[in-house]
Specification:
The structure is a homotetramer. Chain A is mostly helical. Chain A has helices spanning 12-32, 39-46, 50-56, 60-85, 91-107, 110-119, 126-146, 156-177, 179-182, 185-199. In chain A, helix 1 (12-32) packs across helix 4, helix 1 crosses helix 6 and helix 5 (91-107) packs across helix 8 (156-177). The interface between A and B is medium-sized, with 35 and 35 residues. Chain D binds a DNA duplex through helix 1, helix 2 and helix 3.
Amino acid sequence: MKTTPRKAPRQERAKATVETILAATARILVKHGYDGLTTNAVAAAAGVSIGSLYQYFPNKEALVAALIEDHIERMTAAIFSELSRVQALPLAAQVRAVIDLLIRAHSVEPKLHRVLTEQVPRVGRIGKILELDAIGQRMISGMLAMHKGTLAIRDPDLSAFILVTAVESICHRAVLFSPERLVDPRFVDETCLLVNRYLGIAEQ
Amino acid sequence: MKTTPRKAPRQERAKATVETILAATARILVKHGYDGLTTNAVAAAAGVSIGSLYQYFPNKEALVAALIEDHIERMTAAIFSELSRVQALPLAAQVRAVIDLLIRAHSVEPKLHRVLTEQVPRVGRIGKILELDAIGQRMISGMLAMHKGTLAIRDPDLSAFILVTAVESICHRAVLFSPERLVDPRFVDETCLLVNRYLGIAEQ
Amino acid sequence: MKTTPRKAPRQERAKATVETILAATARILVKHGYDGLTTNAVAAAAGVSIGSLYQYFPNKEALVAALIEDHIERMTAAIFSELSRVQALPLAAQVRAVIDLLIRAHSVEPKLHRVLTEQVPRVGRIGKILELDAIGQRMISGMLAMHKGTLAIRDPDLSAFILVTAVESICHRAVLFSPERLVDPRFVDETCLLVNRYLGIAEQ
Amino acid sequence: MKTTPRKAPRQERAKATVETILAATARILVKHGYDGLTTNAVAAAAGVSIGSLYQYFPNKEALVAALIEDHIERMTAAIFSELSRVQALPLAAQVRAVIDLLIRAHSVEPKLHRVLTEQVPRVGRIGKILELDAIGQRMISGMLAMHKGTLAIRDPDLSAFILVTAVESICHRAVLFSPERLVDPRFVDETCLLVNRYLGIAEQ
DNA sequence: GATGAATGAGTCTTCATTCAT
DNA sequence: GATGAATGAAGACTCATTCAT
């Protein structure tokens, strides 16, 4: 099924309408979950007629797809810009920076993030997510390969998989299910330890 | 919404019906996802009338709930029995045993496992999962506390959270998204390394 | 649709079963109304299998029909026996006796009486009720005709219709909707007045 | 359960749809009774899609509730306007006017009136009916109190209950079950007599 | 472009009734 | 006779989507 927006809004007003609709979609998604998401409800919540909604989105899934696209794009941008920014730092600092970053990334609209994550496979957007993951892993893999001499690893690819998965999950679960852990500074310290010891990076 | 079974089957015939219905539910869930799951489809696939289905399950969610319950129960039993069985082994062996076990646990009906995992929040069974997680964490936390002298950790509780999350996720993702990794013996080795180095357990 | 009982219970035990079923029907009718009456619920409430229920009653309506038959029979018997009993009394006393009687008749299981009354048309038993009414009217008409000389009426038939309807309704509504009126002795007095003055019977 | 209309029709077209739906509801109600009333049948009879029906009515009962509301409103308006109009007439004339009126009120769509009356309790609209009754009684009670000196009554309240109930029932039953009585002019005369003699109003 | 009325395929669910054991 | 498992027609209701105005 086609889930790309029907047409790019030309006028300013139209762009605003699209924004409003997506915002309403996000709100309903957070409040009622994917099953509670109906196009009519979105239109109503956006203060737009159902007809207008279909002017910009060919079907319901397109709404969610747009939201996911958006979400991923923002996370991607944030993460990758930060990643390249820290390349110059010593390894231990890089590790901490990435972990900090991931936590922050997960903390932006965590509720929406959660719904999106959980519903993603169903909207056929899992490809996007996996792709994102793959990019991240390749990047980390590259970084590991670069420092292979200094690190206690054999297969950068395998290690990247393990590290990205582990750290991403830890951040994800901490944000969603144990937010109280986030306020404890030892949480990040300990996560850094997991990575540093595995890689054989000297602790500070 | 109530999702507990309506009544327990008394006769053999009825027990078989319930089994058939649950099997059909699993099949459809795997094939068409939660959204493709309709009570009528389940009944048809089970070769049972829709009325029979509703004799035992008060609504659609109860079907999935029953499946989840079952799944969790089996995983729990397998994991915990194994956990206590390995208590006597040296730490490094314990780590490997648990990881092996988790992979095996995730490999039983992985497709169903995946759907179930993803749909859990929508059926309100997330409590069960979290509870299971909590139990696992407490168990690991206890083990860590017992060996605190020998291990490079400070807070057994925090470390347990990190380890359980990391290892569980790694196994989960490997089974579901990178099954090719499982055939590589270095995959388990490397995961063990992550844990051993973090805990400061001597590598063999 | 046939609503007569399927077969007369021969054995004592069977008779008891029928009683139990009807009692359960009445209970459910009172508690949940006609729409809440399901054969399965009746069977369960009666502690009988649904199969047994259908052994004695061919369908759901037969249950209600039996109850109505029963109810009418009991009311009829009570009323007519009393009516003939009071024939010898002076007219004013007869009037009071009948009114007293009607109130008492309506007060026996008023909840059931109400449901039965309201649901009667739907079970096609209104014929029975109208017939009962007709008999009552004919009886009163006869009584009026007998005393035509002493009474201020012209058409005994018409007067009977008016009186029976008025008195019956007053009792019905008092019992069901204004039970507080029943404890006031002036209520009966006043109803007697309505009748007596209409008929031109000297007040005591 | 909520039985208020879902949304008011704004466009002319929509208003017509609502009208059509209610008309179809009335037709089916009269023809097949409440149990024969299905939303699908109503939609079909109205020549409207089932979806349209649900745009305006949240559920089946709302259909009947709307009909009842309508019916009551019309009866109320007619009755009360007439009641105040006749205040100036002599008492005997007032009595006759009210009785005439009630008969006419009951004669408007008597079949629908009957079904509505019988089904009312089940749609939770009995409150409305009782309220209407109460208003009527209070009005009559007031009238009686005003003329207490001239009338042979003690408790205007009690007398109002008796009279309103009696007259209302007589009209109701005459219209529904003995329409042949209505053509007989003596029917109204006789009903007036019941009231006049009870109140001690001189017959003309 | 916008509106919102209308559509109807598709689901869930109930419950009277049958029938094998 | 009794049991209760099984049946399936029937009905309420939703919601993505279209289309006349």
